[in-house]
Amino acid sequence: MITHQGAGGDMNLQANASGKDFNIVLDTANWPAKPWPENMVWIPGGDYMMGGNGGEARPDEYPVHEVKVNGFWMDKTEVTIGAFKQFVKATGYTTTAEQKPEWNQLKQQLPPGTPEPDASALVPGSMVFTPTSGPVQLNDFSQWWRYVPGANWRHPNGPNSDVFTTTAYDNYPVTQVSWFDAIAYCKWAGKKLPTEAEWEFAARGGLKNKRYSWGDDGPSSQNVKANLWQGGFPYHNDKVDGFDLAAPVKSFVPNGYGLYEIIGNVWEWCSDWYRPDTYEKDKQRGVVSDPLGPKDSYDPEDPYAIKRVIRGGSFLCNENYCASYRPAARMKTDPYTGENHTGFRAVMTQSDWKVKSQKHN
């Protein structure tokens, strides 16, 4: 039996020493032959019913439809700040948030109707969650999200939140990375972003038709399974799970496939374009093997924007506002957007791993 080992600490940039493997035993009998890629686990693949379960499911999670995925390797944790540092040092890569934005791109991240600023105000930065002083109506995200100059992966919560010049945060998930940043990292690492189908299959952890990655019992202050928001959103976090914002990786018990923080902590980029009718079209085609998602993006709530899919929820998810702490939950966002609750993890096929491992031998 796996028991939860609570990890205390406040991520208002106070370093936390958490991040050790839990005492779990994975069934590796059917894994490919060794060697295995470092810090990855084998997702065996198979058929499953993709889509919503329970009353929290949203319209774009339907219809539930059968999908087949082939086996693949997946990072056991979200890509960490330490790993991203290695990538940047090796390549000199500059992330989206570190570059001066163009207004046509930046406005996709801001509340509708935001007036165009003077050109001198267009400076590098990114979106940062800022708690409100008290209860607010939850239909206007501009009350708790703001564009902060100088916010980027090196300074995820603003210019004063430095995670680059110290190793204290190397085991935290990297955030403030756009979809394009995640793609660049994956290319360097010889990996790729997971498809929605791969991500959801992996997040279910081998469980069949369950609402959550751990079963059907919903998260609560008495049932702490992931780094989520407890208390009054977006003004007071009770931190029952031990964290205010992001937690170090390996802070919570992994799912059945050995994936840590696949639910909660930070959102994770997928490779797919977002469309609300993706599942309807997939079901019409019958059982699809390794679906790659639609060829273009469409969001009826924002028809002139392009969106990519993010999955898994974050430390901001709660039952009153988000409830995306479920394997089936889908969310969409502008691929240029960086936020301090969005990161990613990567995947790799066995054939790609064979090529990569042979190159290093």
UniProtKB/TrEMBL annotation:
A Pfam cross-reference name: FGE-sulfatase
InterPro entries, per database record: CTDL_fold, Sulfatase_Mod_Factor_Kinase, SUMF_dom, SUMF_sf
Gene Ontology MF, one: formylglycine-generating oxidase activity
Annotated ranges, domain Sulfatase-modifying factor enzyme-like: 38-347
PANTHER family, alphabetized: FORMYLGLYCINE-GENERATING ENZYME, SULFATASE MODIFYING FACTOR 1, 2
Protein name: Formylglycine-generating enzyme family protein
Organism: Taibaiella soli
Taxonomic placement: Bacteria, Pseudomonadati, Bacteroidota, Chitinophagia, Chitinophagales
